[in-house]
From TrEMBL:
Organism: Macleaya cordata (Five-seeded plume-poppy)
Domain of life: Eukaryota
Keywords noted in UniProt: Glycoprotein, Kinase, Leucine-rich repeat, Membrane, Repeat, Transferase, Transmembrane, Transmembrane helix
Membrane topology type: Single-pass membrane protein
Domain Protein kinase, residue spans: 675-973
One Pfam family per UniProt: LRR_1
Family label: Belongs to the protein kinase superfamily. Ser/Thr protein kinase family.
This protein's name: Protein kinase domain
Keyword NAD: no
InterPro entries, per database record: Kinase-like_dom_sf, Leu-rich_rpt, Leu-rich_rpt_typical-subtyp, LRR_dom_sf, LRR_N_plant-typ, Plant_LRR-RLKs, Prot_kinase_dom, Ser-Thr/Tyr_kinase_cat_dom
Subcellular location: Membrane
Length: 973
């Protein structure tokens, strides 16, 4: 007796192998091997991914066992290429075919449906099959005659999730009477959902989400009496209403129509879905109130109606939803109080109702009888106190978010019981009393605490922070009666990044880090402004190598500035304004770049960037008492000299217009005069026309490129022109000085400013002959060669560009004070020099903000600071969004331009499909590895974080850079 596989099937498998690209050699054992004993060809049933069924056939006196292939599983084998159907159709006994989680492309062979009559399971999910679905090959008007011979087809499962199919949804599938699972989500299907889809006889699972479907949702879907799971969201339907007929699907357990452009109200008929466990209708434009009859769906576990236009209150009937785990109503216009019955839901884990208009108190039993893990009721009009039993015996609560309400009272002692608490945000309320209930020795996992803008008193207990080993963010600012002292332990907490206690009436000395080795390596920001601190700044504070911002302004500190701070490699801002410091500012670039605002309000302090410290003949520090007489003498002499000089200059001014020009060079730029610059510009315009201001090239984009200019020493610069009103000149010049002092390798250097009272010429490093990032993307998209060297034409080179852009933008936002928004970040403003085509440089940073300054109205002293802060913050948020767009362009070789908003609104399945396409695009252009794919995915995810619609939900550039370098997670709400 022999066990043979029909030769036709074995040859079909070997032919199929030849069609595939198997870079990982996953099908290494698919080969003919002769057996040594009888020289027979071995059975292919032992090959990987093959399942056979054996049957016995008696012929004459011999019984032969014949094996036939019934299962072919090639999933997750890193295969690619296209499948013709030439060989697959020969496996006529296939029952199960699984090609999922590969990179197959091309059209799905129609032979799978026409030549495999025994097929019951077909899984082609997570590939790149494209074109029309194969059953669409016949004309639509032949519907009644299509596949007549196959209407008894045995197919039960068809999973085509996350591919690139296009065209209309295949209506002929409704002839498959045994079909139970139909997943066509995450492709490019367009048009309407066929009304015929309501005629499936046995369908239990329907997934059409994440396509390009439009039109109305057909009410015929309500005829699917056997359906238990339906996902049809993340499309863009018109008609915009939820058909009430969907309430007839009495077996339905899961309904998702999120992100589908729905409007109108929620039909009461959905209350008939008595088996429903999950209902997701978020991110639409639904109006009206929530039907109170939803409280009768006792099987409901997840209800998400967030990000709509829903009004009204939470129905009291929700007290009957004893199986509810998630209640998400955030981002609506709901009012009223939170029903007490919500607190009695035993399975409730997440209560998310932020950004509404709820009022009244939280249910006083909240947390006592449920399994709460996440409570976010921020940005409402809630009052009262924290429920006393919010953590009474509850070891599951990890996020308690109550900020921006009208809560009062003391911190509940039960907070100590929240051993699982990770995030506590109660800022911007009216809480009072002391903060001692926060015993960090019992809150072992807490990382984020914000108690700011309340009415706490009693100081910061030493043991409150001394054992906070995982604490990263601690803010008690703007509690005007807090008082007490600063615990010295803040310097030694191993994870602390930000410590803020401004405007708290804190007394005593500024605490010194005990030893250099004990200063936390993570602490980057300490804010202690507007307190009553006295004494000196301990020099050991400069030993904290990660410290970037130390704000001690508006206190009573005295003494001299520790010289060590001037040599700190990390310090960006030491704000000691409005104290009692004396002596000279240490000579250091750190302090010069901080500007005068960081040192103002200290009458006995002098030296750059403040007024010079003069003796009679040279620059030496003199106390104010010792130099009083000398000062009067000097002032008298200076007055006489100034009178003479001003008289001469006045006459000279009338005769020589060109002396109105002033040249300000920045670090590293030769000391050219204004005359040198104006003469150099004569290569494009005459000296007379430039100096008499008769030439005014039109503004384009954020600032115009006037010309390139070759200076006397041979330096080539780009020249841009900005105009200003006379009362804005000083303000704009100060900002240009800030731009000019910005020095980082990923920024195009601003070399100098040549200006008069009406406008100025900005002189930049010259990069124009080389490709910008936008030009690179065009060449990549059209498969043209770029100017990158062959050794760098891979993902590693692009990732280096990503990091370079991030570092440049991070420097502008976090290492400059005040921060400099780029304002016009895009691929065309990322340029490269001739020597290194992988190191990007950001051009035109700050120019948009600069030009906006000239349009501000109001008094210079009163309005400008306010406008500047508001403008800078707004532009920084836009920078982060623009950074996300640039990242998408880089990973997609320029294809995904201005697509962030639509991708962010799509569901995970569509994003996964897009990511798969990005992998393919990068593989086509360059050799990639699994590590490359991990980095591509990381860049893609960071891009989507940066392009969130709400600015406050976007990461800072510092966080974005950390994510890109370490693969960490974004901060939660």
């Amino acid at each position: 007796m022999v066990n043979l596989l029909p030769k036709q099937e074995e040859e079909a498998l070997l032919g199929l192998k030849l069609e595939l690209l198997d870079t990982s050699n996953s099908l290494y054992d698919w080969s003919k091997v002769k057996q040594p004993d009888n020289n027979k060809i071995s059975s292919a049933c032992s090959w990987s991914g093959i399942t056979c069924t054996t049957s016995t056939i008696t012929y004459a006196t011999n019984n032969n066992n014949y094996s036939t292939v019934t299962g072919l599983d090639l999933s997750q084998k890193n295969l690619s290429g296209s499948i013709s159907g030439k060989y697959i159709k020969l496996l006529i006994n296939l029952v199960s075919l699984n090609l999922s989680h590969n990179s197959f492309s091309g059209k799905l062979p129609q032979e799978i449906f026409t030549s495999l009559p025994n097929l019951t399971t077909l899984d082609i999910s997570r590939n790149s099959f494209n074109g029309n679905f194969p059953s669409m090959a016949l004309p639509a008007d032949d519907y009644d005659h299509i596949m007549v011979q196959q209407h008894h087809h045995r197919l039960v499962v068809l999973d085509a999730f996350s591919n690139s199919f296009s065209g209309s949804l295949p209506v002929q599938l409704t002839k498959f009477e045994s079909l139970k699972v139909l997943n066509l989500g995450g492709s490019y299907f367009e048009g309407r959902i066929p009304s015929w889809y309501g005629s499936f006889k046995s369908l239990e699972f329907l997934h059409l989400a994440g396509n390009l479907l439009e039109g109305e949702i057909p009410p015929e879907l309500g005829n699917l009496k056997t359906l238990t799971h339906m996902e049809i969201g993340y499309n863009s339907y018109q008609g915009n209403i939820i058909p009430w007929q969907l309430g007839s699907m009495t077996q339905l357990q899961y309904l998702d129509i999120a992100g589908a452009n729905l409007s109108g109200s929620i039909p009461n008929h959905l209350c008939n879905l008595t088996s429903l466990q999950s209902l997701f209708l978020f991110r639409n434009q639904l109006i009206g109130s929530i039907p109170s009859c939803f409280g009768n769906i006792i099987s409901l576990q997840n209800l998400d109606l967030s990000d709509n236009l829903i009004t009204g209150s939470i129905p009291k009937s929700f007290a009957g939803l004893k199986n509810l785990h998630l209640l998400s109503l955030m981002y609506n216009g709901m009012t009223g109080s939170i029903p007490e019955g919500i607190a009695d839901l035993p399975q409730l884990e997440a209560l998310l109702i932020w950004n509404n208009f709820f009022s009244g108190a939280l249910p006083q039993n909240l947390g006592k009888n449920c399994k709460l893990k996440w409570v976010d009721v921020s940005s409402n009009n809630l009052t009262g106190n924290i429920p006393p039993d919010i953590c009474n015996g509850n070891v599951m609560l990890s996020k308690l978010i109550l900020f921006s309400n009208n809560f009062t009272g003391r911190l509940s002692p039960s907070l100590t019981n929240c051993s699982s608490l990770v995030r506590l945000r109660i800022e911007d309320n009216s809480f009072s009393g002391d903060i001692s209930p926060l015993k960090f020795s019992l809150l072992n996992d807490i990382t984020y605490v914000d108690l700011s803008r309340n009415r706490f008193t009693g100081g910061i207990p030493k043991d409150t922070v001394s054992q906070a080993f995982k604490l990263q963010y601690f803010n008690v600012s703007h509690n005007p009666d807090l008082g007490g002292f600063i615990p010295g332990e803040i310097w030694s907490l191993p994870s602390l990044v930000n410590f803020s206690a401004s405007s708290c009436s804190i007394l005593g000395n500024f605490p010194a880090p005990p030893l250099k080795s004990e200063c936390s390596s993570s602490i980057t920001m300490v804010e202690l402004s507007r307190n009553n601190l006295s004494g000196t700044i301990p020099e050991s504070a400069a030993n904290c190598k990660a410290l970037r911002v130390l704000d001690l302004s508006h206190n009573k500190l005295n003494g001299s500035i520790p010289i060590k701070f001037g040599n700190s490699s990390s310090l960006v801002l030491l704000n000691i304004s409005f104290n009692e410091f004396s002596g000279s500012v240490p000579q250091s670039n750190n302090f010069r770049f901080m500007g005068t605002s960081a040192f103002l309000g200290n009458p006995d302090l002098c030296g750059e960037p403040l007024q010079p410290c003069f003796t009679s003949l040279g620059e030496f520090r003199l106390g104010r008492k010792n130099s009083e007489k000398l000062r009067w003498i000097l002032l008298l002499c200076v007055g006489v000299v100034l009178f003479i000089v001003m008289s001469v200059l006045g006459i000279f001014y009338l005769h020589r217009q060109r002396d109105k020009w002033k040249m300000v060079p920045f670090t590293g730029f030769p000391q050219f005069t204004a005359k040198d610059i104006l003469r150099s510009l004569s290569t494009t315009y005459t000296n007379d026309s430039i100096e008499s201001q008769t030439v005014t090239p039109p503004l384009i984009s954020s600032a115009p490129l006037i010309c390139k200019s070759v200076l006397p020493t041979g330096i080539t610069v780009s020249v841009k022109k900005v105009k200003w009103d006379s009362n804005r000149r000083e303000l704009m010049s100060d900002f240009i000085n800030l731009m000019g002092n910005a020095r980082q390798k990923n920024l195009v250097r601003l070399l100098g400013l040549c200006s008069n009272k009406n406008f100025g010429y900005l002189l930049y490093d010259y990069y124009l002959p080389n490709e910008s990032l936008a030009e690179k993307m065009i060449r990549m998209k059209t498969r043209e060669p770029t100017r990158m060297s062959s050794s760098s034409s891979n993902w590693a080179a692009k990732f280096k560009i990503v990091i370079g852009v991030a570092r440049g933008l991070c420097y502008l936002h976090h290492d400059c004070y005040p921060p400099i928004p780029h304002g016009d970040l895009k691929a065309s403003n990322v340029v490269f020099d001739e020597g290194n085509m992988e190191e990007p440089h950001l051009a035109d940073f700050g120019l948009k903000t600069l030009l906006q300054m000239n349009s501000w109205t109001g008094s210079v002293s009163g309005t400008d600071d306010e406008l500047r802060r508001a403008t800078i913050q707004e532009e920084i948020h836009r920078d982060i969004y623009s950074f996300g767009e640039v990242l998408l362009e880089i990973v997609s070789n320029g294809r995904l331009r201005n697509a962030g908003g639509s991708i962010n609104q799509s569901k995970r399945i569509l994003r996964e499909r897009i990511l798969s396409e990005i992998y393919d695009e990068n593989d086509e252009l360059e050799v990639g590895t699994s590590e490359d794919q991990d980095e591509i995915k990381l860049v893609f995810e960071v891009a989507l974080l940066c392009m969130r619609s709400k600015p406050s939900d976007r990461p800072s550039m510092d966080d974005a850079l950390k994510l890109l370098l370490s693969g960490g997670e974004s901060k939660p709400h």
